[in-house]
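Researcher: Please translate sequence to structure tokens.
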Amino acid sequence: MGVGGAESGDGSSSTSSSGVSSSSDGGESSEGGESSSSEGGESSSSGGETPGGEMRVLQLNLCHSGLAGCFTGDPVMDKAVSVIKDVGPGLVTLNEVCRDDVAWLASHTGAVDHRFTPALRADNTPVKCKNGDDYGNGLLSWFAPKWKTPVTGVYAKQSSQTERRVWICMGYEKFVGCTTHLSTAGDTAMAQCKELVGGALSTAAADGPAVMAGDWNLKYKGSPNAQDCVMDGFYRKGDGALQHVLASDHFGFIETVVIDMDGTTDHPGLEVRLTLP
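Model: Translation complete:
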């Protein structure tokens, strides 16, 4: 969804009584299918990387612009804090947030680094949330930053000039992390996805581990098919709907966990548990 409209697609994964569903290596594969979900629970950790080398990536679309129909107000921020603390991620990717939301979440969850980039209008000014703050995408990390500033970009192909879609990547100790929120127009979303994966993400992966997560507005086996954005050297894990994590082959895969956000936003949380090289 963008600032002003709705998108289609509810998650296909079932959830357990705890509001969480999970799949392990037997589930969604880099070559294909969304996994069926078995019962599972959230696990707590205190910093994203466990002694065994596990790193958890958490994708959240918070619908917090104040303008879209999925907006629920502050409850989504409180829910995000609760989920982040339960998951214990190394990286959180954020879509449909205001600039100050990212700093607020960092201060309430102990993230050591936070970054933001706004979606842009035709004149290159930031899209605004209802409260006047810049609207866009963010990153939270529990790994120390390796770059002084993030790398950002505006896609060449756009379906709207009132909300031009963008991406952001940041270098951290041990990996590069990126996020994006793609167009609601399928062909445009696919072109944008391939531009990011074939460009900045592949460049980062040539030097080491790289991961990109976000709301792609593309479904696995949809039209277009989200899997068609997966290039050599990467694999994808999804929430059964529109959100995906794309990791370079440097990372091992443990499992995918889909988290119920209790109606505070129109997307579930997507947690993907990886192993660092």
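Researcher: Any highlights?
Model: The chain has a mean pLDDT of 86.
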